[in-house]
Automatic annotation (TrEMBL):
PROSITE patterns: ZF_SWIM. InterPro entries: Znf_SWIM. Keywords: Metal-binding, Zinc, Zinc-finger. GO terms for molecular function: zinc ion binding. This is SWIM-type domain-containing protein. Residues 22-67 form the SWIM-type domain. It comes from Desulfofundulus thermobenzoicus. It comes from the Bacteria.
Amino acid sequence: MIGTPHLVNDLVVYPVSPRLAYVVERDCRIELTTTPESCTCCTFRFNFRHKPGFRCRHIAALRQVLGLP
Ligand SMILES: [Zn+2]
């Protein structure tokens, strides 16, 4: 799992440790740094202020790759 890129829907999830992954959108060149609880995308940063525990689709994809609920 770790160190291998995974395709999840339209996202490429590349876990570098059990707690950290790089996520790239297929149609976008921006590389995001994602953990099971946080993400550097603007959707997460905007929503997290209002909804603690919010999961953007990058977090959801990473949790799927890591086998987390
Ligand atoms: Zn995100």
